[in-house]
Amino acid sequence: MNYDMSNGYFFDYSTGHILHEGCIVTTITGLKAKVLHRLLQNPPGEIITKEDIIESVWGGTDIVIYGPSLTQQIYLLRKDIEQIGLKNYIVARSKKGYYININTHEFDSSTNNRNDRNTTSLLPSKYIGVIFLLMIILQLSIVYFF
Questions:
Q1: pTM of the predicted protein model
Q2: 35: closest CA among 87, 88, 82, 90?
Q3: DSSP-assigned beta bridge partners for residue 93
């Protein structure tokens, strides 16, 4: 399932990839992916309670047990998302929960330079070796026949 994150960014929950203009800009895995998935299921700006996130991600409802882990996952998720240029994307509401802020977040275009970040093509890496081998065969056949 793909979720529109705003500014041309999409989160593919099945792979954990955040995509921009068809390129993978980062990968979110594990509990961070589950937390982001839960946050993106609600409309932007709608507060999701900590208890609701905890129940969705960990299957429990005890805020005392799972609360610190949720806080840690949100912290790590914010760091990952800020690295691609989405600032203030996940906002905390004191004693209520979190929400996605797509309308007023700052977009740092300086981090959106393709030369400054590591991007990956959508072409699976297993095909790159095959393409390379075919190019060598093509070059050898051109040399041999001409």
A1: 0.69
A2: 90
A3: 97
pLDDT in tens, 82-128: 999 888 999 999 888 999 998 643 444 444 443 334 444 455 555 66
* Domain map (residue ranges) of the chain: 2-121
Question: Which value, in Å, is the radius of gyration of the alpha carbons in the chain?
Answer: 20
Task: Tell me the three-class secondary structure of the chain, residue by residue.
Answer: CEEEEECCEEEECCCCEEEECCEEEEECCHHHHHHHHHHHCCCCCCCEEHHHHHHHHHCCCCHHHHHHHHHHHHHHHHHHHHHCCECCCEEEECCCEEEECCCCCCECHHHHCCCCCCCECCCCHHHHHHHHHHHHHHHHHHHHHC
What's the Cα-to-Cα distance from 119 to each of 8, 18, 67, 91, 93, rounded to whole Å?
Answer: 15, 11, 33, 27, 33
Tell me: domain 2-121, CATH 1.10.10.10, correct?
A: yes
